[in-house]
Write a structure and sequence with these properties.
The chain has 206 residues and is α+β, with helices and mostly antiparallel strands. Among the domains are: 59-163, Jelly Rolls; 173-203, no CATH class. It has a five-stranded antiparallel sheet with strand order 1-2-9-4-7, with no helix packed on it. α3 (183-190) crosses α4. A hairpin with a 5-residue loop joins β5 and β6. The chain has helices at residues 2-10, 170-175, 183-190, 194-203, and strands at residues 64-69, 83-89, 94-99, 105-111, 113-119, 125-131, 135-138, 143-148, 154-160, 168-169. The protein is built from four helices and ten strands, in the order αββββββββββααα. Helices cover 16% and strands 29% of the residues.
């Protein structure tokens, strides 16, 4: 009972924001997370999660899939400020350039060979090819990627110092948003013709 009460109490302590912005100053004050479960209702199952035990389906345009172990999938993480993902890669697969606005990321390669890279706010690119047992770290908010450069499948686990780190996946953000970013913005940004933008959007069903 003491452990359950302690952990349940800690789960009501605020950590990083779970939303991108908050403008409704007239709204009722709430904790930074989901409502906490009463200590008397806490069970052992609240502290265990098997969602990362199965290989993800990599049959998609990127040849990679992320299985999230954040608060949305594992409620026991609520406001504790940690989470972990599983990322599976088919041969040649890529976890495309993206960022996590609310978290630093660290990761370890379980299987395979991957090129991991990120770009700083000073526009400097850092990268390295790493293999099983080797780790990497991506500072909070920086654009980064992982690409399988080995001959077989690859697997990594990534950890975050947020229970809901968020993910801004650049190709989807730019070319598959709802509603769509105007083509005029994208053609001027990338200095290409309208047909090029339409061709990219079509690959993402936009």
């Amino acid at each position: 009972m003491f452990i359950a009460v302690t952990l349940a109490t800690r789960a009501c302590t605020p950590h990083d924001d779970m939303s991108d912005f908050s403008q409704d100053l007239k709204a009722s004050l709430s904790i930074n997370g989901f409502p906490c479960k009463n200590a008397s209702e806490v069970t052992s199952d609240d502290f265990f999660f098997d969602g990362l035990s199965k290989e993800g389906n990599t049959s998609n345009i990127f040849g990679a899939t992320v299985t999230g172990g954040n608060v949305l999938a594992f409620p026991g993480l609520n406001t504790l400020g940690i989470s972990i993902n599983r990322v599976d890669f088919a041969p040649g697969g890529i976890n495309p350039p993206h960022s996590h606005p609310r978290s630093t990321e660290s990761g370890v390669v379980i299987k395979g060979k991957l090129l991991v890279g990120f770009v700083t706010t000073g526009n400097v690119f850092y990268s390295k090819i790493i293999t099983a047992g080797q780790m990497f770290v991506i500072p909070r908010g920086l654009v980064h990627f992982q690409q399988n450069v080995g001959k077989g499948k690859a697997l990594i686990f990534t950890a975050f110092n947020s229970h809901l780190p968020g993910a801004v996946v650049l190709p989807l953000t730019l070319f598959a948003s709802t509603p769509s970013i105007p083509n005029d913005v994208l053609t001027k940004t990338f200095q290409v013709e309208d047909a090029v933008i339409n061709g990219i959007k079509s690959k993402f069903g936009s």
